[in-house]
Write a structure and sequence with these properties.
heterodimer; A: alpha/beta; 5-stranded parallel β-sheet; 4-stranded antiparallel β-sheet; 14 strands; B: alpha+beta; 5-stranded mixed β-sheet; 3-stranded antiparallel β-sheet; 11 helices
Chain lengths: ~220, ~450
């Protein structure tokens, strides 16, 4: 695991590097856009944690070029700007997530893990939450490495929830994940599938928890 | 309607209509003054008046009982003569020409005929009779001719075919002017106004100047210049706000990372709490500043997904405080507004409800047609801590409440005001606070 921190603040930069290194693995720190570009050309990174305001420009310009790299690094933007337009600009450019400053150190690590997990799922077809593991290519879920037999729709639900573990997955998103265009959606079908899925996971000894949020959606957490 | 606020277009149309009819009238008068009367008009008037004066006695012989007007004509035209003949006899007045006198008192069958005096340099109509088949009275008349002024007066008194036609044409022209001119004048103005309406809150869009009529060009240019100034001020304000956000949040972030080094858990938790409320204040001040100073783009939006997104954003905070969030409302609820601003307002309402009403264990969010969003908590309620409206004033907060910043409801009130929405704060039946936003439909 290799991380790149792009942050020009003399006190925050080293702290970010040290905190991320302690939690996730080796991290490098650069303080300008030029240095960041140079670093990205030298070696691949799994995760880039970046500030937007750098002495030589807006780091949003860097995101597009990072998206073209293989393997593509996950991008977490730290921003002191909370104008919804600014946030939308970063996400539209291709950032995986953003975190508003000031942030809780725990939150930073959790978000970094979440974007890494999603990226891993996209690139390696694997993701895991607690002792639950999902292989998208084999279409199989494992609890403590024991395969779990799940019907097609529950498998699709599980994948959608694990992809965004730690975040609220809205009901529409689950509907879209489970049903095709031709399927007729019954209003409570998702809830029924989910309660069966939860029961199966519990019985298999899974420690990941799926929380139901009435009228909103579901949240999977460790 | 006062004269000041009357439409320029209809004033112009009235003026134009008036001018055109005055011009036509003058042309008509000029025409009469130039050509005058050839006698036909005067003699028609005489004959008409004579007809009114004719009586017949028991034997059927005609008699003249001159009307006042006929007497006046007789004084006015000393050469006037006339002969009135019926099958039973005749009566005359004035010096009758010899040729007419020769045929006097002879009844001949009614037929159209004209008599011209060809003695002078030009042809002069002496007498013209047009009689129908059932005519019982024949009037021969001569010796009267109108001056120009008299012709006009006569025509005004008894309009003939020509003048009726002229009046009709004038009326049509005036009506057409009144209908057409305003449209001609108003259409480009309307087009410019529609273009201005389309500009809305987006930056950089301007009124087209090149295809404006000359009169509207200065207005369009001035309008665009005003927009330039507003855009510049808005951009400046946006720059200022993002600089302020950066300059305030960077040291807060630095401070937060330094707090990691504090060994004493209790002191650390206390300091982190203080820092959180400080950064919440910064966030809300920036939100309030943005809401009051930045233009918003109003669109038709469905409230349900906007509310659902806002609720989903607050789920982690709610779960951390042990509060369950529940959203009710499925059908689309369409209102006109800015999804961004409504989202910000709702986030603040939800955080308020979680923070102050969280002891109830759950917060219910209801969305219902035509445009209502309610955030219902089951906590201790807002009670008597606030006095009336003051609750939505910036920095107002409950007396026992140290944790709040007093900005949340001010932001909500601002969002409500921007949308013309009603904001109601009530007690939840059974205890707690219900805050309702009512968007105009």
């Amino acid at each position: 695991m290799r991380l790149l921190v792009i942050e020009d603040d003399a006190s925050l930069g080293p702290w970010l590097r040290d905190a991320l290194e302690a939690a996730l693995g080796g991290a490098d720190l650069v303080t300008t856009l030029d240095e960041a570009q140079a670093a990205l050309q030298v070696r691949p990174f799994d995760l880039v944690v970046m500030d937007r305001r750098l002495p030589d420009g807006d780091a949003v310009t860097l995101i597009a070029s990072m998206r073209r790299l293989t393997p593509r690094p996950s991008i977490l933007v730290l921003t002191a700007l909370d104008d919804p337009n600014d946030i939308a600009k970063a996400l539209d450019a291709g950032a995986d997530d953003y975190l508003a400053k000031p942030f809780e150190p725990v939150e930073l690590i959790a978000r970094a893990r979440a974007v890494l997990r999603r990226n891993q799922l996209d690139q390696k077809g694997m993701t895991s939450v607690a002792n639950l593991r999902f292989d998208t290519f084999a279409r199989t879920a494992y609890v403590d490495d024991h395969p779990l037999i799940l019907p097609r729709r529950e498998l699709a639900l599980l994948e959608a929830l694990m992809r965004r573990a730690g975040q609220v997955v809205l009901r529409e998103a689950l509907d879209n994940a489970v049903y095709g265009f031709d399927d007729e959606i019954q209003s409570n079908a998702i809830d029924a599938h989910l309660s069966r899925l939860r029961k199966r996971l519990r019985e298999a000894g899974c420690r990941a928890e799926i929380k139901a949020l009435r009228g909103i959606g579901y949240l999977m957490s460790e | 309607m006062s004269l000041k606020s009357r439409s320029i277009a209809s004033s112009a149309a009235m003026l134009l209509g008036g001018l055109i009819s005055a011009l036509l009238f003058c042309l008509f008068l000029g025409f009469i003054a130039f050509y005058g009367d050839d006698g036909a008009l005067a003699q028609y008037d005489m004959a008409a008046e004579i007809k009114r004066s004719v009586r017949t006695d028991e034997a059927g012989r005609p008699q003249i009982a001159p009307t006042r007007r006929l007497l006046r004509f007789q004084r006015q035209f000393p050469a006037l003569w006339y002969v009135v003949t019926t099958p039973k006899g005749s009566v005359s007045y004035g010096e009758i020409p010899a040729r007419v006198a020769a045929g006097r008192a002879l009844w001949d069958a009614p037929q159209p005929r004209s008599t011209y005096d060809a003695g002078g340099s030009e042809l002069r109509l002496v007498q013209s009779t047009r009689a129908g088949e059932g005519a019982s009275v024949l009037i021969e008349v001569g010796g009267a001719i109108y001056s120009s002024a008299e012709t006009v007066v006569s025509l005004l008194r008894e309009p003939d075919m020509t003048s009726t036609l002229l009046v009709a044409v004038m009326t049509i022209i005036i009506l057409a002017t009144i209908l057409v001119v305003p449209t001609l004048i108003v259409r480009p103005v309307r087009r410019a106004a529609a273009a201005a309406e389309d500009i809305g809150a987006r930056d950089g869009v301007r009124l087209p100047v090149d295809n404006q009529p000359t009169e509207l060009k200065p207005l369009a240019v001035a309008f665009n210049r005003a927009l330039d100034r507003i855009d510049a001020a808005t951009a400046e304000q946006r720059r200022f706000l993002s600089n302020a956000a950066h300059e305030l949040r960077t040291p807060l972030t630095r401070l937060r990372t330094r707090l990691e080094r504090v060994e004493d858990r209790e002191i650390k938790a206390e300091l982190v709490g203080e820092l959180h409320s400080l950064s919440a204040t910064v966030t809300m001040l920036l939100q309030l500043a943005r809401l009051t100073s930045q233009p918003m783009e109003m669109q038709r939006i469905d409230l349900v997904p906007v509310v659902r997104d806002a609720v989903a954003r607050e789920v982690p905070t709610a779960l951390a405080s042990g509060v369950e969030l529940e959203l009710r409302g499925e059908a689309p609820v369409t209102v006109s507004g800015s999804a961004q601003a409504i989202g910000i307002g709702l986030s603040n309402l939800l955080r308020n409800a979680i923070q102050h009403g969280g002891s109830g264990g759950r917060v219910v969010i209801e969305v219902a047609a035509p445009g209502r969003v309610s955030v219902i908590d089951f906590g201790p309620g807002i009670g008597t801590a606030y006095d009336g409206r003051a609750v939505v004033e910036p920095f107002a907060r409950g007396k026992q409440d140290a944790a709040g910043t007093g900005l949340g409801l001010a932001i909500v009130a601002q969002v409500a005001a921007l949308h013309g929405a009603g904001l109601a704060i009530e007690e939840t039946p059974g205890g707690g606070t219900t805050v309702t936003l009512n968007f105009p439909h």
